[in-house]
């Protein structure tokens, strides 16, 4: 009988009708595949049982999180080679390799079953979200989803994100460090919002308080930050107290739907709208519109996906839904713009930052790998593996234009239609110091 690696390689190549671009190293010590390629390591046959029980992405994800699948070599190269099998086949490739009646798929499954015994599969890893059934995006379900993602330990996030504690796309230029780029992103948001001394800013999804601190310290804003994560709120409040900004910043554990103390001069929503979901996005837009005073500005910073040929066929990514952002959804930027304008906003500027997010994610992965043992102690081996895979795969998706991220600047028009924006809309490309020098 052939060794496990050779059998797995033969099964995969028969299914795909092309050579595997990576080596396979199996639990029995056998190897097969291109000698100069990085290796996909299958440490235990349990991984095959997971794939058989949940074909496709979720089964593979469970095996990865459990440590039953690993890589030997550059993680980005392995992911890129495997993803290329799907990307080269087009948008429908994921569905094309799974039809139950396809004889190649059935032969592949029989081969895996022979290698994977005994049956049944193990339980999902503890890091997989356990969700109740019922309607999406109720307040309670949203709070549980946010807690799953963010309440995994501030110490863990500090290792990954670095001192800035900013968990969104940075704004890069040549020679920037991660801290430089995150500071520049926060400053860009403040300039787009036109913040000035005494302005009331609502920061929706305030995270660990970095935007609030920057707006209060450098622009004199009075900031209300809201989050559903108690760990984020505790960290933000401690930081604000240490920096002597308690008179300028209030942090609340609060759903955006429960904020009723407008009007605000400006609203920032940075990396939060992905949690809202398609069923709630119009309500989100309506609520933010109602909280702004006429002439007030909204800066919506949001990840976007490419449009589907059939938008009704869109499904949330199985791995991300189960392990990273439960119930999170991505929308094409055009749909987001349309919904904001349907709520009454006037969209004034869109800036695409896709390449910037790829650079940011690679820095976060490097931080995680550099502090791996400490990160594992701060959370769990499975959770650290989730974040490593999620961030590395996301970096590749941004680089290959599978997803993007955009800053949308929108305004609530005055009753007569005015916007209070400068005629040269991109005046924020100048720093505050540049503008003062020009004056």
Automatic annotation (TrEMBL):
One of its GO terms (biological process) is methylation. PANTHER family: CYCLOPROPANE-FATTY-ACYL-PHOSPHOLIPID SYNTHASE. SMART domains: PKS_MT. Residues 156-396 form the Polyketide synthase-like methyltransferase domain. Keywords: Lipid metabolism, Methyltransferase, S-adenosyl-L-methionine, Transferase. It holds the Pfam family CMAS. It comes from the Bacteria. It comes from Streptomyces sindenensis. CDD domains: AdoMet_MTases. Belongs to the CFA/CMAS family. Its EC number is 2.1.1.-. GO terms for molecular function: methyltransferase activity. InterPro entries: CFA/CMAS (IPR050723), CMAS (IPR003333), MeTfrase_dom (IPR020803), SAM-dependent_MTases_sf (IPR029063). This is Class I SAM-dependent methyltransferase. Residues 120-140 are annotated as: Disordered.
